[in-house]
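Allow me, if you will, to draw on your knowledge of protein folds for a short while. Thank you for your consideration; the sequence and its tokens are set out here:
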Amino acid sequence: MALIECVPNISEGRRPAVVQEIVEAVRATPGVRLLDYSSDGAHNRSVVTFAGDRAALKRAVLDLFDRAVTSIDLRTHSGVHPRLGAVDVVPFVPLIDVSMDDCVTLARDTASAVAHRFDIPVFLYEEASAAAWRSRLEDIRRGGLEALTGRMRTREWAPDYGPHAPHPTAGATVIGARRLLIAYNVNLATNRLDVARAVAASVRFSGGGLPFVKAMGVALADRGIVQVSMNLTNYEQTSVRQAFEAVAIEARRLGADVLESEIVGLVPAAALAGVEPAELKLTDFGPAHVLEARLRDTA
């Protein structure tokens, strides 16, 4: 059976009732298997993970947008994680008996439908992108929605679908196709944001650090600590353990210790093969966070 994973990130992590309404819209879509969802108040962001075939996923994403656009107003949104839209990013990931080309086709078809139905500008990214200079999510997101709004007035940065100006409350959206990604955060036992940012700059690939690692330093003000928030875009080339150890070494050099780490969403079993959660100081981690286990449980 063909199976594609979809992992939308929505710009709401502080109102559980709103998040639950969006999640239930996905759960109610015929042919969709809801695998996981989680929220973070400091980031003011939620991640929903579900799987299905192309037709079911398109329906689920449109229903998710319907609830999110109604409930989320970026004009009053705040959080430490950068964002462009009420539904910020929607990646499609090949899992079983599907190709990356299948996911690219789905991404473009869904992006067109979102733009048409909700009047939201949509940018394609990663494998679905038609423009090499803006295929990376961080390039599209650079400078935030305000900077993107200015760039959208140029021919090179016209959205792939939809209007050439952001939706007044829902902003813009990025939709694409990519490999499995691990969202991995390491919290440091300090409140020094400069330390977290220096560590992030050291470990991310664009700063000369680890291949296939994207990282930023953010403050978790409600806890009085800072975080190195990472995306591991190819765990076979740079493992979770390598990312953890690199952060720990650089943080220690700057006078800070690792407090704990966390995986946001699901992780493939192979990414943690031979590693005990305690070695990574992983919090709240169990079989329910493993992708293959959730697929079995929801079959």
